[in-house]
Give the backbone structure.
Amino acid sequence: MNFQHCTIVGIGLLGGSLALDLRRHYPEIIITGIARRQATLDEASLIRHGKELVFNRLSLNLEDAADADLVVLCTPVQTIIQQLAALAKLLKPGAVVTDVGSAKRAVMNAAVTVLPPTVHFIGGHPMAGSDRAGLIFAVPDLFVDASWALCIPPGHEEAAAKLAEVIQTLGAHPVIIDAASHDAIVALTSHLPHVVAAALVKIVLSHEEVMPFLAGGFRDTTRIAAGNPPMWRDIILTNRDQVISALNLMIAELTTWRDVVRSGDAPHLEALLTTACDQREQLNK
Amino acid sequence: MNFQHCTIVGIGLLGGSLALDLRRHYPEIIITGIARRQATLDEASLIRHGKELVFNRLSLNLEDAADADLVVLCTPVQTIIQQLAALAKLLKPGAVVTDVGSAKRAVMNAAVTVLPPTVHFIGGHPMAGSDRAGLIFAVPDLFVDASWALCIPPGHEEAAAKLAEVIQTLGAHPVIIDAASHDAIVALTSHLPHVVAAALVKIVLSHEEVMPFLAGGFRDTTRIAAGNPPMWRDIILTNRDQVISALNLMIAELTTWRDVVRSGDAPHLEALLTTACDQREQLNK
């Protein structure tokens, strides 16, 4: 194993699932869990893999990340940025720090600005999660077959390779990408769908009489709208310019569809539907 | 059983699933299946419930609906309207006709206009289905716990009660509603989500580089976009005014969200997300 002591800051769905997998794949590793609430630590103290406790140490203090050689920040993205500043004074030289935040430019900028050059920050973003938040939903193998974006600042390639090896051991696929490209892409694939699902919920579920008419399609389309509001507020505002661009694209696209429907142009409408159907079917393969 | 001979016109996902359930719940009923393509009839001729064939008779000719006392039209909604005209000359007095179309005003108007008063037309719309089309996806119990909208023209209450009894036997819940209310509601709960999912697919999946970044949330949100394009073209254009209203609501809602994101007003954005989260969580209960 490339790391002897991993500290996970924020032990909810992602942090908890990561801890489960690390304990399973690396029985000898020391895992410290840091959380904001004692109730989370109490819950975490009971989690085992087989007979072994998953967490060797649990703490409410970020200072207890000082002795780790791998720190994984699994907190909301604005919290990550604040915690990087606090960690700057604590971490030992050679420590590798990564995160799982859904917006990467702001995190990379913060890391470059506040961390000493002796600490290796590699931005991370696993394409895994759910609309359920909290340690209670943590599961093994959450990252199997998921892409895991890595943003690697120049000069930190060796640390990134060590981290990528761990990620592959968990069954995920490292995808090396620059922070700006990452943020533009996830604005489309993740942040826009979240806002669209939330907006759809808001205009449809405000009418009591619709309830008997909600079938599986509506449930699927809006499932992600149940995601944790403060976390999503952070993500959206941290990636604000790209989310605005994505929303403008969506508004323009829906306006096109409305105009085609209004025109009654059946072949044009069928062509639009067929393109979308074909593209979506590709994902089922 | 209230009916001795049921003819199902259009034996795809809905018509096929309906036939399976009728055979199971009413072993003595005669079931005729009518389809446009011989290949569908060939496939249908092999379907059994236990040892019994589901279909007693299969035909390519709508004329073979003449001797049924219950006719269920499971074709696309514009086809339903055409078939009502053709059936008008064929059906025996007292026959009950229903459909499963997703837009009800146009169907009810056609029925009232073309059918003789001796035939009972009850508009129907089960809230069941999937993004998969075709007889191959037909399953038993598709309608269990689903709402099944019924539009009952004055004077046809007795026929409607006989039909509702069958629907309840299949495990579904009849919901009596007027056609205009139905069309306004499903524009929001079904037709709008379809267009939104299709528009989202179109702007996101046009970029090859997004592929590694598509997680479960995007798949859920866009699943329905894989639905049958000609069927959806028909539904949308048949319910055109209500779909336009729903799209205008959605465009206005997304514009509000974009403006809040642009303003950077974190409490306002969190309030919007929290409302949507709370409303969506209600559906999980």
In short: The CA atoms of residues 73 and 80 of chain B lie 6 Å apart.
